[in-house]
């Protein structure tokens, strides 16, 4: 339940300008989850969400840009539990996720400044990662496989 709630929170803050816990509660209720404000408050802390200035000049919740120490938490909370498998072909890595989680995983990876990654593209359950060359794609795939198997 907690994992699914965290997935829905990430999805909500990526798709909507959510500035308050009450707005987040409402978004979760729209997705069929009836949770308390205290639970949402704990989830915000566990996910390491921060408030940042949105395009409209209003503060909103967001997944933080990676800083030392936060990359591991981002990986542990978002990426590892959401990825099903990883493979590559030439310099492109394909990451298969649970339905609805690819964009959250992709956003989390984008904050991590991964070596050799040129760019990412996410759909609903699949991410394409373009690496600089086939060797880097192979290395990235093996690293990600090891990380998600723990």
Q: End-to-end distance, in Å?
A: 21 Å
Number of strands: 6
Instruction: Give the CATH level 1 class of the largest domain.
Output: Alpha Beta
CATH topology of the largest domain: Gyrase A, domain 2
Helicity range: 40-55%
- Structure classification: alpha+beta
- State the helix count: 6
Percentage beta strand: 15-25%
- How is the biggest beta sheet arranged? 4 strands, antiparallel
Q: What would CATH call the architecture of the largest domain?
A: 2-Layer Sandwich
Along the chain, the helix and strand elements come as: HHHEEHEEHEEH
Mean model confidence by pLDDT = 84
Compute the number of structural domains: 2
Q: Rg, please? A: 16 Å
Unreliable spans are none
Strand order of the main beta sheet, please? 3-4-6-5
User: Which shape, going by the Cα principal axes?
Assistant: elongated
Keyword list:
150 residues; alpha+beta; Arc Repressor Mutant, subunit A; Gyrase A, domain 2; 2 domains; two-stranded antiparallel ribbon; 6 strands
Structural account:
This protein has 150 residues and is of the alpha+beta class. The chain folds into two domains: 61 residues, Orthogonal Bundle (Arc Repressor Mutant, subunit A), CATH 1.10.10.10; 68 residues, 2-Layer Sandwich (Gyrase A, domain 2), CATH 3.30.1360.40. The chain is 46% helix and 22% strand. It is built from six helices and six strands; from the N terminus they run αααββαββαββα. The strands form two sheets. A four-stranded antiparallel beta sheet has the order 3-4-6-5, covered by helices on one side. The chain has a two-stranded antiparallel ribbon with strand order 1-2. β5 and β6 form a beta hairpin. α4 packs antiparallel against α5. The model has no long low-confidence stretch (mean pLDDT 84).
